[in-house]
Amino acid sequence: MKVLITGADGQLGWELQRAVPAGIEFTACNSAELDITSKPQVDELTARLAPEIIINAAAYTAVDRAESEVELAMAVNRDGAAHLAAAAAALGAGIIHVSTDFIFDGCHYRPYLPADVPNPTGVYGASKLAGERLLLIKCPDAAIIRTAWVYSSHGNNFVKTMLRLMDGRKELGVVADQIGSPTWAGGLAQALWQAAVQKLTGVYHWTDAGVASWYDFACAIQEEALALGILRRETFIRPLRTEDYPTQARRPPYSVLDKTSLWGELGVSAPHWRFNLKKMLAELKNV
Ligand SMILES: NC(=O)c1ccc[n+]([C@@H]2O[C@H](COP(=O)([O-])OP(=O)(O)OC[C@H]3O[C@@H](n4cnc5c(N)ncnc54)[C@H](OP(=O)(O)O)[C@@H]3O)[C@@H](O)[C@H]2O)c1
Questions:
Q1: What b/e readout covers 118-145, taking b as 16+ CB neighbours within 10 angstroms?
Q2: Distance in angstroms (rounded) separating the CA atoms of residues 274 and 220
Q3: Is 249 in a helix, a strand, or coil?
Q4: What is the mean predicted confidence (pLDDT) over 216-221?
Q5: 36 CB less than 6 Å from ligand 1?
Q6: Which of 148, 166, 227, 239 lies in the 20 to 30 Å Cα band around 141?
Q7: Active site residue 124
Q8: Best CA proximity match to 97, nearest among 139, 69, 63
């Protein structure tokens, strides 16, 4: 099977390349090699490579900056997704697109099902939702897999930010009233490959199991990092309310996703987030 991966230098794009199953011939393009906002570039490259599946790991992911870069966020997350979907449809190829928990407003406190009504609270979520919608119009047989709170040993993310801050500070405040599911990009990549091999279509959710607040996540990062010797001194972590930590974008207070349908389709479930956190930190230590 020939597969095109976009966003090759991102967390997920990188993990996808590490997790390629046997029998897959893949081309992974970073933003310099394929700018998904350019329809001519997308059309030319896909016609030349003729992939059977496109996995779109490219995205504009700067949640706060998106509030002031609306056009760019829309160009990548809405138009880029549409260009790839149109190219896939023209070739008769499949497309697996990755979306986000931030399409939901987080106002009801039970895990969100794939069919729940979206209502993004910010530009990033709105651009990802617009991408999902256009994608399904251009390529109704697409697979959309929504995920959340992604981290990897490669790239920038909450885990690495916390380690950096904890290394130099005696005290740190972290928001304790936003609840979600931390997700290791490596596990997500494996799930996406399985979805590709099974030629899955439809809308699904994938995150690691369990829930946490950013505060809980930060406490776990510190505990595991101290145990592994990545950190040497303890930092006092203070729980904050969202209102005490103003950001440009409003985030959903509860964005846990219900994964049961994808776990059923793939016949696998994700481990608890803390298990994968340990694995990633052990890897980071060796890097
Ligand atoms: N990170 C999270 O917490 C999170 C949460 C929920 C959902 N997701 C979704 O998961 C997917 C993967 O996210 P990630 O964490 O791997 O993001 P990431 O690390 O920010 O990587 C995104 C990649 O997309 C590339 N990109 C940006 N604009 C592009 C363009 N016009 N053409 C081609 N590539 C472009 C970026 O390249 P440059 O750096 O060169 O611009 C970057 O390498 C995304 O769909 C994201 O929306 C992420």
A1: bebbbbbbbbbbbbbebbbebbebbbbb
A2: 7
A3: coil
A4: 98
A5: yes
A6: 148
A7: yes
A8: 139
**DSSP structure class, residue 76:** I
Give the CA count within 13 Å in the CB-facing half-sphere of 55: 33
Reduced to 3 DSSP states, what percent helix, strand and coil does the chain have, rounded to the nearest 5? 45, 20, 40
Q: Categorize the per-residue pLDDT at 220 as very low, low, confident or very high, splitting at 50, 70 and 90.
A: very high
CA dist list (Å): 258 to 22, 60, 178, 210 = 30, 24, 17, 11
CATH tag, 2-156+182-210+256-271: 3.40.50.720
Question: Ligand 1: which of 29, 61, 78, 102 to mutate, judged by most atoms within 8 Å of the beta carbon?
Answer: 61
Distance (angstroms) between ligand 1 centre and the Cα of 185 equals 12
Task: List Cα–Cα distances, 28 to 25, 93, 263, in angstroms.
Answer: 10, 16, 26
Query: Which residue lies with its CA nearest to atom 24 of ligand 1?
Result: 58
- CB of 255 closer than 6 A to ligand 1? no
Residues 194-208 have a mean pLDDT of 98
> CB count, 10 Å around CB of 287?
6
Q: Is 80 in the pocket of ligand 1 (CB under 6 A)?
A: yes
Higher pLDDT, 108 or 160: 160
